[in-house]
Specification:
Length: 309
């Protein structure tokens, strides 16, 4: 990349928070660059069907919703590049965003990089990733047509993944560490009504085993201590997310779990650096609230740039 121009705002992350911030900042006629290292649309792009984003009474595919958000922001002038952020440095009144494609210079930064799937951290998980261990049913379910699979977790993501997998797999074993699901009521109702989904309560996975591909999981009943094995061709790990802020340690104030601390205007302690979406402390972690955060962060950028002129 050649020498960076000075952008009014650089946005890190192309999910609903970042794309909404991009829409607002571009409509405000600020020069705005958004960087994304993976899929534009973020987590929503790997969600099969979104039915709780207002305005779509019949729901919408997550991929399509992400594309619409991007098109809408680009229509007003948002520029995007594929790059991974690795740091932010302060230089006078400017911010230098270090990225895999070179340094970007900005007057303000909105950090909206979201979060990454939590790993189980058990033997075999790493080794069989891509060989039966997956973190995305929308991406990989079709590989498991008429085969037995497991989903680990009890939240909205795990149930959504299990329901999607039930359209392909012969059997879906939902492995949850407690005897009560965390997921929202309507998803629980659907899971209990789906004959291909079987619940394995009070159970944790101890290891993932196989030869070339996953063949079985060793599991432990946390109440009785009984250990057993279940035969599956795939395991979908859906046990929450961790914020993607390792590269911001020592730069921005983080909570104990690594989320960025902001005020209600999405401002961090560093003037001109805002955060939005799942990455911030106390986020409701919904596409709609991430979009709201993005709008609020962009309005704070506008205020900051106007006042610092
Ligand atoms: P989550 O709500 O944090 O749930 C994580 C689940 O994994 C919990 O059931 C938890 O068990 C279990 N878990 C955590 N660590 C574990 C471990 N080490 N071993 C075994 N199990 C473990 O995460 P999520 O389901 O990914 O959802 C994240 C956010 O996105 C939520 O706010 C959710 O509402 C939102 N979301 C919404 C939708 C939707 O609206 N349709 C879809 C997806 C996600 P415990 O219950 O025992 O803690």
């Amino acid at each position: 990349m050649t020498q960076s121009p000075v952008y009014d705002v650089v946005i890190i992350g192309g999910g609903p928070a970042g794309l909404t911030a991009g829409l607002y900042a571009s409509r405000g006629r600020f020069s705005t660059l958004l960087i994304e290292r993976g899929l534009f649309g973020g987590q929503i792009a790997t969600t099969e069907h979104v039915e709780n984003y207002p305005g779509f009474p019949n729901g919408i595919s997550g991929m399509e919703l992400g594309q619409f958000m991007m098109e809408q922001a680009e229509k007003f002038g948002l520029k995007t590049i594929s790059a991974e952020a690795s740091g932010i440095e302060l230089q006078g009144g400017l911010k230098i965003v270090k990225t895999s494609e070179g340094d970007l210079v900005a007057r303000t930064v909105i950090v909206a990089g979201g979060s990454q799937r939590q790993k189980m951290a058990v033997p075999g998980e790493e080794e069989f990733t891509g060989k039966g261990v997956s973190y995305c049913a929308t991406c990989d379910a079709a590989f498991f047509q008429d085969q037995a699979v497991a989903v680990v977790g009890g939240g909205d993501s795990a149930i959504s993944e299990a329901l999607h997998l039930a359209k392909f797999a012969s059997k879906v074993t939902l492995i949850h560490r407690r005897d009560e699901l965390r997921a929202t009521g309507i998803l629980q109702e659907r899971a209990f009504a789906e004959p291909r989904i079987q619940l394995l309560w009070d159970t944790t996975v101890e290891s993932v085993e196989g030869k070339k591909f996953v063949e079985k999981l060793r599991v432990n009943n946390v109440k009785t201590g009984t250990k057993s094995a279940i035969e599956v061709s795939g395991v979908f790990v859906s046990i929450g997310f961790r914020p993607d802020t390792d590269y911001l340690r020592g730069i921005l104030p983080l909570d104990s779990a690594g989320h960025i601390i902001t005020n209600e205007r999405m401002e961090t302690d560093i003037p001109g650096i805002m955060a939005a979406g799942d990455i911030r402390h106390n986020s409701a972690k919904q596409a709609i609230t991430a979009a709201g955060d993005g709008a609020t962060a962009a309005l704070s950028v506008e205020r900051f740039l106007t006042e610092s002129r």
